[in-house]
Design goal:
InterPro entries: Creatin/AminoP/Spt16_N, Creatinase/aminopeptidase-like, Creatinase_N, Pept_M24, Peptidase_M24B. This protein folds into two domains: 3-129, Creatine Amidinohydrolase, Chain A, domain 1, CATH 3.40.350.10; 131-358, Alpha-Beta Complex (Creatine Amidinohydrolase). It has nine helices and 19 strands. It has helices spanning 3-15, 26-33, 81-86, 103-112, 122-130, 134-154, 164-177, 239-258, 265-278, and strands spanning 20-23, 45-49, 54-59, 71-75, 94-97, 117-120, 188-191, 212-217, 220-221, 224-225, 228-234, 290-292, 299-303, 316-319, 322-325, 330-333, 336-341, 344-347, 357-358. Helix 1 (3-15) crosses helix 5 and helix 8 (239-258) runs antiparallel to helix 9 (265-278).
Length: 361
């Protein structure tokens, strides 16, 4: 159990005048208890009271051998787990429920306690997870350093005649060579016109001379995700593609410069987006500027025009502007992860963003 994280959560509960809550998201439970439990359709619930009373409702199908720092409430498939949990829930009227708990479990609890008030407690859990502690910061640095090395190894393969699917498979082999067995999301390895589709699914397309190649990759290291995008060119680059690349790179740098405590998340989006708009390509930047990241590739708190939450020290999120000209077969995205520090941010990715033309062998 991570006592410091539990303590931070309870402090936030008290600030919100929430006496107790139920957490069911396996990632949130892992964050607090340091154990990953995937319950499938069965009920899994971490009950936390502000007085420090902590219980974990868990099915007997998922035995836990080590001490977890919490009391287990065991149930089996012929028992009503929610009823068993209800016997430990204290009298306080308002109870926070995270947004992941299945309606069938929440409805059962409401039958048992019809007079309680149920509120969304996920904002509290997400708020605590958003601020990374020192252990998490170091793991994210290490995860990103591996991702840098993987990217450097991957780039030369864009000119070896592989299809997008083959290049994606080669990427996974490179991850394994670096000790990473699992990607954090299905990678995007896209040539030419495919690169102009922001979330293109890899297919059997092969690259050709002059193609841009979008490489959006990430792996899982000690349960923490990495994520980075670089765009390179095969053999040569047209003046038009060079222009687009340099605009995106400058937008990326401006977004990073705005990633500092006290600014809003929307300020980061505005810094990147306004530059692209100024250059006349605003309608071709079709997605938000970034997302929070940690145990999951996409965590709560995006970098968008509508997120006016204040940036705090310890947050980690991506800055990934792009321009996608489908009719011209030009797509460019450049993505870095940033860790917010006292006086700005630490960029976790070190792979050069200077325009790179990979020579054909």
């Amino acid at each position: 159990m991570h006592k410091n994280r539990i303590d931070r959560l309870i402090k936030k509960m008290e600030e919100a005048k929430l006496h107790h809550m139920i957490i069911s998201d396996p990632y949130a439970i892992f964050y607090l208890l340091d154990r990953m439990i995937e319950p499938g359709e069965r009920a899994l619930a971490l009950y936390i009271h502000k007085d420090g009373d902590i219980k974990l409702l868990i099915n007997e199908l998922f035995p836990q051998e080590e001490e977890a720092g919490v009391d287990f409430i065991w149930y089996n498939d012929i028992e009503d787990g929610i009823e068993k949990l209800s016997k430990y829930i204290k009298e306080d009227e308002v109870i926070g429920i995270d947004k992941f708990w299945s309606a069938k479990f929440l409805l059962r609890l409401q039958e048992i306690f019809p007079d309680k008030k149920y509120v969304n407690g996920s904002t509290i859990v997400d708020g605590v997870r958003r601020i990374k502690d020192e252990e998490e910061k170091q793991l994210m640095r290490e995860s990103s350093a591996i991702n840098d090395a993987v990217m450097e190894d991957l780039i030369p393969w864009v000119v070896k005649g592989l299809s997008e699917k083959e290049l994606s498979q080669k990427l996974k082999e490179i991850y394994k060579a670096h000790g990473v067995e699992e990607v954090s999301f299905e990678p995007i390895t896209a040539y030419g016109r495919s690169a102009a589709d922001p979330h293109h699914s890899t297919d059997n397309t092969k690259g050709k001379l002059g193609d841009c190649v979008v490489l959006d990759i990430g792996g899982m290291y000690k349960n923490y995700a990495s994520d980075m995008t670089r765009t390179v060119f095969i053999g040569e680059v047209s003046d038009r593609a060079r222009e687009i690349y340099e605009i995106v790179k400058e937008a990326n740098l401006r977004g990073i410069a705005a990633a500092r405590p006290g600014n809003k998340m929307s300020d980061v989006d505005k810094a990147a987006r306004s530059y692209i708009e100024e250059k006349g390509y605003g309608k071709y930047f079709t997605h938000r500027t970034g997302h929070s990241i940690g145990l999951e590739t996409h965590e709560e708190g995006d970098v968008s025009s509508v997120n006016d939450s204040i940036i705090e020290v310890g947050q980690i999120f991506s800055v990934e502007p792009g321009i996608y000209l489908l009719d011209e077969g030009i797509g460019v995205r450049i993505e870095d992860l940033v860790l917010i520090t006292e006086d700005g941010c630490e960029v976790l990715n070190k792979v050069s963003k200077e325009l790179k033309v990979v020579p054909i062998e």
